[in-house]
Amino acid sequence: MVPQIRFFIFLFAFVFSIISSGRGGRLNNTNAIEKEALRNIQKQWRITTWETLQSTDPCDRLKPWRRDGENAWINCSCNPNNNCSIIELKVFEMNVSGRIPDALFNLTNLVNLSLGTNRFSGGIPSTVGSLTLLEQLYIDSSGLSGPLPSDLANMTSLKKLWAFDNDFTGNLPESIGQLTNLTDLQIYGTSLEGPIPKNFSALTKLETLKLGDLSGADSNLSFLENMKSLFTLSLRNCQVADEIPTFLRNFSNLTYLFLGNNALSDLFPSEVLTENKNLTTVDVSFNNISGSLSSNDLRAGLSMNYIGTSMNRQSDSEPFLKCIEMESSPCTSNYP
Description:
Layout: H1 2-20, E1 29-30, H2 32-45, E2 73-78, E3 83-90, E4 97-98, E5 112-114, E6 119-120, E7 136-138, E8 145-146, E9 160-162, E10 167-168, E11 184-187, E12 193-194, E13 208-212, E14 215-216, E15 232-236, E16 256-258, E17 265-267, H3 271-274, E18 281-283, E19 288-293, E20 303-305, E21 310-313, H4 317-326, E22 331-332
Parallel strand pairs: 1-3, 3-5, 4-6, 5-7, 7-9, 8-10, 9-11, 11-13, 12-14, 13-15, 15-16, 16-18, 17-19, 18-20, 19-21
Antiparallel strand pairs: 2-3, 20-22
């Protein structure tokens, strides 16, 4: 019996050592400042699934908020000694109200922060600039207001910024032009004012740029010239008073181009259509542009909307324009 007892003692000790090493996720040790920050956030936002944060470690792998796909999700990064930091936080579409607490910006190891589709009040605290490791920030449709803080310039690791459908006011800040690692920038449906800052020209890694609904001073399109990585470009209702630049013909990745509802003028450069073989959607509606498009310009698979302009098609122009007026989607070159 003694050997058997020794075996079970050894087995128990072995299993316990695995759990203690963190493979079972029970003895993680989260950074004390971050742990306290999460507990303060839980109290203010009243997230019910986080209630046990007050007595357990946030990086415990067995807790529901650690499961992949969970909303009100917390993700951690732990070193071999099981010392952990919070790197991802998702509180999406949870009807959370109130202000964003300063405690949030004590989570300085965050890489991904998703707070979209909530009912926050007030603005973004200037302490947002402490999140220097952040790569993705989603604050779309979150109820935020006030100016976008200049401290955003400190977030130089940022690759994605979605800030659309909020009541932001003031000027579209030049500080965003310092975020040169951005690949996806979306700011529209706000009360921000233009012009689009000239230093946005430094954002040459952008693959998606969606700006819209800017009031105030006019903008021009010269800042776009070196953004040749763009796949999606949308500048809707941005008070753009300019010609459509011919350099857009060199944007070989571009598939979606929306310049509608601006003050664009002069001739539409047809080479933008003929030389960008990947373009599938173009909308230049409600601008002061003119020009004549041939059947070669409007190739198969290209959807183009130019209602509200002085442009026309060289043949069958009236049926084509009627198509735009009658259909919910833009016309294609295949319209009979």
